[in-house]
Write a structure and sequence with these properties.
The complex is a heterodimer of chains A (352) and B (590).
Chain A lengths: L4 H18 L1 H4 L20 E3 L5 E10 L11 E8 L1 E11 L3 E9 L18 H37 L1 H16 L2 H11 L6 H15 L2 H15 L2 H8 L4 H37 L11 H6 L4 H6 L5 H37 L1
Antiparallel strand pairs in A: 1-2, 2-3, 4-5
Helix pairs in contact in A: 1-3, 1-12, 3-4, 3-6, 3-7, 3-9, 4-7, 7-9, 8-9, 9-12
Chain B lengths: L1 H17 L18 E2 L10 E6 L14 H10 L4 E3 L6 E3 L2 E6 L5 E6 L13 H12 L12 E2 L2 E2 L1 E6 L2 E5 L19 H9 L22 E7 L3 E6 L5 E2 L11 E6 L3 H9 L5 E2 L4 H8 L2 H4 L1 E8 L3 E6 L12 H8 L2 H10 L2 H8 L4 E3 L23 H10 L3 E2 L5 E2 L7 E7 L3 H15 L4 E7 L1 H11 L4 E6 L10 H4 L18 H15 L3 H18 L3 E2 L1 E10 L2 E2 L18 E2 L8
Parallel strand pairs in B: 1-13, 2-14, 21-22, 21-23
Antiparallel strand pairs in B: 3-4, 5-6, 6-10, 7-8, 9-10, 11-12, 12-14, 15-25, 16-25, 17-23, 17-24, 18-25, 19-20, 26-27
Helix pairs in contact in B: 3-4, 9-11, 10-12, 15-16
The chains are: A mainly alpha (352), B alpha+beta (590).
C-alpha cells in the first residue's frame, strides 16, 4: 500500500522539525543553560541592513545591547557594533546524539555582540537555543513513550485477543483499571514519592516510563479487537488447518492486520504524550532547571508580568502548535488511508 | 481621550454602586475627660471607602489566635495595643497607655491608661480589660502564638492592677526594650469575651462568622460585614481615641474593604484596573509592569528601600537525620566545614541575583540584618563581592581538588554535588536556586534544583530534616534583635541549620548564644549594639546561613489617597489607616 499525498506533507514537515530539534546544538547559537545576566528578558534582537549612518550592508547585522542600569530602558541597543551575522561560526561545544562533538553553529555574531533571534528569558538565556533543546525533551519524550505504550499494547492486546480465555479476562480488567485511573493525580503522587536526588536524565527516563506505562491500555484494547476479528477469518483458519504454528499465524496473518491501527494510534498518541510531558513540566513535575522543555518554558507564562510584557516567551507554544498540526493532519490522512484499505478488504471478503 | 472619559463614567457608576443612599456613620463627639491622642497628620476630610486586596482570606477574627498575615492585617485595623511601635520611625510610642515608667532595676513597668476611652461598641475601657487580656494571652490552654514573647527568663510576665487606670508588669529578669513586647497585643473587651473564656470556649469565639454586634475593639475600624470568598468590610469606629490637630475624631474614612484576591498577580490586576486603592508588597517584576502606567492610571508606586526580609541558602547541618539518611550524612562532611561554606558564599553572584530576581530593587547581604534595619546593622561589614578565585583557594586549603573535566572532588575522591529544594510557589526563590546552580557549576559543583510544594518543603526542613540544601526567606516582625532570637539561639525553634540542639554544637554557636542572651538582658542600647555587631561578625565568619539578597519593600497607592506614608515594617501601607483620606484625583499627595 503506497501512502497517499496527504500523508507525505505532514511527514515531511515533521521530519524537518525533528531534524532541526535533533541538531539543536548546530541550529541554536548558544548553550541553552548559559545565563547572560546582563540582558535578562530582552525581546528578539533586531536585525539591521541599514546602519545608523545610512550605509547599506549586504550582510544583516546587530548592535550591542545595553546593560540594565535602572535608568535606561532595558535591552536598548547601544552604539557598539555593528556585529554582522556570520554563518558556521565557532561557539560553545555541543554534542549530537551523544556521540558527535562540534563547536560549529549555523549562525552567530562575534563577541562581545549577541544575537537572540527569539529574545532571552528572565535569566538572560537564549530562547531560540532553549526552544530547540527543549524540543528534544518534549518531542522525544512523546516518541519514546508512544513506542513503549504501543509495544506494551501490542503485546498484551495480541495476547488477550489471540488466546482469549482467562488471559483475556485478566488483561482486559487491567485495561479497565488503567483507563479509570486519574493519571494526572497518579503522576503527581508518583513524583512526590521519588527521591529528591533524581538527575535530569533519570527524570526524563522516568517521565517516559510513567507516561508510556499509564497509556498502554487504549491501544491494547483496540489491538485486541483487531486480533479477535482477524483470528476468525477463513484464510487464518485455513492456515491453521495446514499446521501453521501460533507464531507463524501471528507473524503472517494477524500482526499485519494491526499495522494501520498501530500507525494511526501512533499518530494520535505522540502529540497526546508530547502534551502530557508539557503538562507535567508546566506543573513543575518534569525535568528540572536548567534543562529546558517546552512545558517548563511555557510555565513561566503563569507569571503575570511575563504574560503581559514578554511576548517572545510564547515561542515554544508556536512550536507546539506546528507539531500538533502536523500530527493531526497525519493521523487524519492515515485514517482516511485505512478506511480505503478497509473498503478493499470488505469487497474482498464479500467475494468469499 | 475617549477611553479616559469612559473611565470617568465608569468611576461614577462604581461610586453610585458603592454608596447606596450615601450612608455614613458619624463620629461620636469628644467627651470631657476623654484623654484622646492628638495625631500629627495633615488634617483631612471625612468620608469615602478604601478598597485593598488581601492575598488570602483571613482565617479568624480572634486577635489572640491569629497567626496568618491576612488575619493580622484585618485585625490590625480593629484592635489597639498599650504601647505601639511606630511603623515609620521604628520607635515605640504611647498608644492606649498614655505613659509608662520603668523601675531602676528594669524589672517593673507601670503603665498609665488613657481615661474615658471606649471600645467600638461604646463600653468603657479600664484596667480590668488589660488584666483579662494578659490572662488570655498567657493561658497555656489558649496557646496564643504571641505567648512566647511574654515569657522572660522562662517565667511569664506578672500583671497587676494598681488602680482603675494603672497596671504594673513584673519581669523575672531585666529585658531590653521590654516596652516593644506590648506591640500588637490587642486589648480585649472583658465584657464580651469573659463569658466564652470562662466556659472554655475562647478558641471558638470571634471566628469569621461572628455577628458584628458581638465583636468590639479599640482600633480605628470595626466589623461591618464579612462575605465568605469575597470581602470583609470594616466601618469607622465612632469611639476611636485619636483626633487630628483640628480636634476632629479620626479616622477619616467611612469604610475599609478587604477583597480576597488569591495571589499576588490577581492583586496587581485589581490595582491596575482601579478596583483597589492600595497594593502591598509587590514583586519587582510587577513593579516594573505597573511603573509604566503610573501617570496614565493615577497611581504612584513607592520603592521603600530594603525591608526586613532576607533570603538565604540553608545547608543541612542537623544532627538528627531521617533513619535512612539518603546520603545526607556524607554531604554534611562538606557542609560542616566553615571553609567550604565560605567558598560557596564567595562563589555566589549576589549582585546578579539582585539584578535578575529583584530587577536591582534589593540589597546583597552577608548577615540576617538587612540595610533596612538602620538602627542595628553593623556598618563595618564588607560589601559581599563575588570571587571565584577566593572560593578555589578556600576549597584547596581544605583538601578539595578538581578532575580534568573540571568537576570538584573532596579529599576522598568523591564528586561534590547536592540538591537545593525551594518552594514551587515562589518564583523568586526558584530563580535564586537556579542562579546558584549556575554559579556553583563554575566551581565544578553539580547542583540540582528541586521545586517542592511549600508545605512539603517546610516539613522536610522543620520535621524530617530530609534535604541537603534549601533556599528560604525569613523576615517581617520588628527591627529589634529580640524578634529573631528563635533563629539565633541554638535552642530556638527556627534554628534551621541544626534544629533541636540540646547544647551548642560548635564554639561559634556557643558564642552566639551567649551574645544573644546577654543583649536580651542588657539595658544599655550602646552595649546591646556592640554585642549584636559581634553576632553579625560571626554570621560573616562562620556562615550559618549563606545569605543572599534582601528585597526592597515595593508598594503602590492611588494618587487620591492622602497622608499615605508607607513603611518597611508590616503592615506597610495601612499602619496609619486612621490618618488616610481620599481627595480629588487631580491633587497629588504631600
Amino acid at each position: 500500500m503506497r501512502p497517499s499525498k496527504a500523508v507525505v506533507l505532514p511527514l515531511v514537515c515533521l521530519a524537518v522539525i525533528h531534524t532541526i530539534v535533533g541538531l539543536a546544538g548546530f541550529f541554536g547559537p548558544y548553550d541553552p543553560a548559559a545565563q547572560n545576566r546582563e540582558v535578562p528578558s530582552c525581546p528578539p534582537t533586531r536585525l539591521h541592513w541599514v546602519d545608523r549612518d545610512g550605509g547599506l550592508h549586504l550582510r544583516p547585522f546587530v548592535y550591542g545591547l545595553a546593560e540594565p542600569t535602572g535608568e535606561t530602558e532595558q535591552c536598548a541597543e547601544v552604539l557598539h557594533g555593528p556585529y554582522p551575522i556570520q554563518l558556521l561560526v565557532r561557539g560553545t561545544q555541543y554534542r549530537i546524539l551523544g556521540v558527535l562533538t562540534s563547536d560549529r553553529h549555523l549562525f552567530g555574531v562575534a563577541a562581545p555582540g549577541h544575537v537572540y533571534v527569539m529574545g532571552t528569558d528572565n535569566y538572560g538565556r537564549d530562547v531560540l537555543s532553549r526552544v530547540l533543546y527543549g524540543g528534544q525533551i518534549s518531542l522525544f519524550a512523546g516518541l519514546l513513550a508512544t513506542l513503549l505504550s504501543l509495544i506494551l499494547g501490542l503485546l498484551l492486546g495480541t495476547l488477550a485477543g489471540f488466546y482469549g480465555g482467562w488471559r483475556d479476562g485478566v488483561i482486559m480488567r487491567g485495561v479497565e483499571l488503567f483507563l479509570a485511573l486519574p493519571w494526572l493525580y497518579l503522576l503527581l503522587a508518583l513524583r512526590a514519592f521519588l527521591p529528591l536526588h533524581t538527575g535530569p536524565r533519570q527524570t526524563f527516563l522516568l517521565l517516559i516510563a510513567v507516561i508510556g506505562f499509564v497509556g498502554w491500555a487504549r491501544p491494547a484494547r483496540i489491538i485486541r479487537g483487531v486480533v479477535l476479528s482477524a483470528k476468525e477469518r477463513s484464510h487464518l483458519l485455513a492456515a491453521r488447518s495446514f499446521g501453521g504454528s501460533d507464531l507463524y499465524l501471528l507473524r503472517h496473518h494477524v500482526l499485519p492486520e494491526t499495522r494501520s491501527v498501530v500507525l494511526t494510534q501512533a499518530a494520535l498518541l505522540i502529540p497526546h504524550y508530547v502534551l502530557a510531558e508539557v503538562t507535567l513540566s508546566f506543573l513543575g513535575l518534569g525535568v528540572s532547571e536548567p534543562i529546558a522543555s517546552w512545558g517548563s518554558m511555557l510555565a513561566t507564562l503563569q507569571q503575570y508580568h511575563i504574560l503581559v510584557s514578554n511576548w517572545w516567551m510564547f515561542y515554544p507554544g508556536v512550536a507546539l502548535v506546528l507539531v500538533f498540526l502536523s500530527y493531526g493532519v497525519l493521523s487524519n490522512a492515515l485514517q482516511a488511508d485505512t478506511a480505503k484499505h478497509g473498503v478493499k478488504w470488505n469487497a474482498y471478503s464479500s467475494l468469499e | 481621550m475617549r477611553t479616559r472619559r469612559w473611565n470617568k463614567l465608569l468611576d461614577l457608576v462604581v461610586v453610585a454602586l458603592l454608596y447606596p443612599g450615601g450612608y455614613a456613620l458619624a463620629s461620636n463627639p469628644i467627651g470631657t475627660g476623654e484623654e484622646v491622642l492628638v495625631a500629627a497628620n495633615n488634617p483631612g476630610t471625612n468620608g469615602g471607602r478604601l478598597v485593598v486586596a488581601l492575598r488570602a482570606e483571613p482565617k479568624t477574627l480572634n486577635p489572640v489566635l491569629s497567626n496568618d498575615a491576612s488575619s493580622r492585617e484585618v485585625l490590625s485595623q480593629m484592635t489597639a495595643d498599650l504601647i505601639h511601635i511606630n511603623r515609620y520611625s521604628q520607635q515605640s510610642e504611647p498608644s492606649l497607655a498614655k505613659s509608662w515608667s520603668v523601675s531602676p532595676d528594669g524589672l517593673h513597668y507601670i503603665l498609665q491608661l488613657r481615661r474615658g476611652l471606649r471600645f467600638s461598641d461604646g463600653t468603657p475601657l479600664d484596667a480590668e480589660d488589660v488584666l483579662f487580656t494578659f490572662r488570655v494571652y498567657l493561658d497555656e490552654k489558649v496557646n496564643a502564638p504571641q505567648r512566647d514573647t511574654l515569657i522572660v527568663a522562662d517565667k511569664p510576665v506578672v500583671v497587676r492592677k494598681t488602680g482603675p487606670y494603672t497596671v504594673a508588669f513584673d519581669m523575672a529578669q531585666p529585658y531590653a526594650s521590654a516596652e516593644r513586647l506590648f506591640d500588637s497585643i490587642a486589648i480585649l473587651p472583658h465584657h464580651l469575651l469573659e463569658g466564652p473564656y470562662s466556659e472554655g470556649k475562647f478558641t471558638q469565639a470571634w471566628n469569621l462568622g461572628v455577628p458584628s454586634g458581638q465583636i468590639a475593639g479599640l482600633g480605628p475600624f470595626r466589623l461591618k460585614q464579612y462575605v465568605p470568598g469575597q470581602h470583609i468590610t470594616l466601618e469607622r469606629n465612632p469611639y476611636y481615641w485619636k483626633v487630628d490637630s483640628k480636634g476632629n475624631r479620626l479616622p477619616y474614612l467611612d469604610e475599609v474593604t478587604f477583597l480576597f484576591a488569591g495571589n499576588e498577580d490577581a492583586e496587581v490586576l485589581r490595582f491596575e484596573s482601579g478596583e483597589t486603592e492600595i497594593v502591598n508588597r509587590i514583586s519587582a517584576e510587577n513593579y516594573v509592569v505597573l511603573e509604566k502606567q503610573q501617570t496614565s492610571r493615577g497611581f504612584k508606586l513607592y520603592d521603600l528601600g530594603p525591608g526586613l526580609e532576607y533570603n538565604f541558602l540553608l545547608l543541612n547541618l542537623n544532627a538528627t537525620l531521617p533513619p535512612r539518611d539518603n546520603g545526607i550524612r556524607s554531604k554534611q562532611a562538606w557542609f560542616g566545614d566553615i571553609k567550604f561554606r565560605q567558598a560557596i558564599s564567595s562563589a555566589i553572584d549576589r549582585d546578579g541575583i539582585n539584578r535578575i530576581v529583584y530587577k536591582g530593587r534589593g540589597s546583597p547581604i552577608l548577615t540576617h540584618v538587612p540595610p533596612g534595619n538602620r538602627l542595628w546593622i553593623d556598618q563595618k561589614l564588607p560589601h559581599p563581592a563575588r570571587s571565584l578565585d577566593r572560593s578555589r583557594e578556600l576549597l584547596k586549603s581544605v583538601g578539595f581538588s578538581w578532575r580534568s573535566d573540571g568537576s570538584l572532588i573532596d579529599s576522598h575522591g568523591s564528586e561534590v554535588e547536592f540538591s537545593i529544594v525551594a518552594s514551587a510557589s515562589s518564583n523568586q526563590r526558584l530563580q535564586m536556586a537556579t542562579m546558584i546552580q549556575q554559579d556553583l557549576k563554575e566551581l565544578g559543583i553539580r547542583v540540582q534544583v528541586v521545586p517542592l510544594e511549600f508545605r512539603t518543603m517546610l516539613d522536610r526542613v522543620l520535621q524530617t530534616h530530609d534535604y541537603e540544601a534549601a533556599v528560604m526567606g525569613l523576615g517581617g516582625g520588628d527591627v529589634d534583635p529580640n524578634s529573631q532570637v528563635n533563629v539565633w539561639l541554638s535552642s530556638g525553634d527556627d534554628h534551621f541549620w541544626n534544629l533541636g540542639e540540646t547544647k551548642p554544637a560548635t564554639p561559634w554557636e556557643a558564642e552566639m548564644d551567649s551574645l544573644m542572651k546577654r543583649q536580651m538582658s542588657t539595658l544599655s542600647a550602646k552595649e546591646r549594639k556592640q554585642l549584636f555587631d559581634r553576632v553579625q561578625e560571626i554570621e560573616v565568619e562562620d556562615v550559618p546561613f549563606i545569605f543572599l539578597v534582601s528585597p526592597n519593600v515595593l508598594v503602590g497607592a492611588k494618587v487620591r489617597v492622602h497622608n499615605f506614608k508607607p513603611a518597611i515594617l508590616d503592615s506597610h501601607t495601612l499602619w496609619n489607616s486612621e490618618e488616610l483620606f481620599l481627595g480629588d484625583e487631580g491633587r497629588s499627595p504631600k
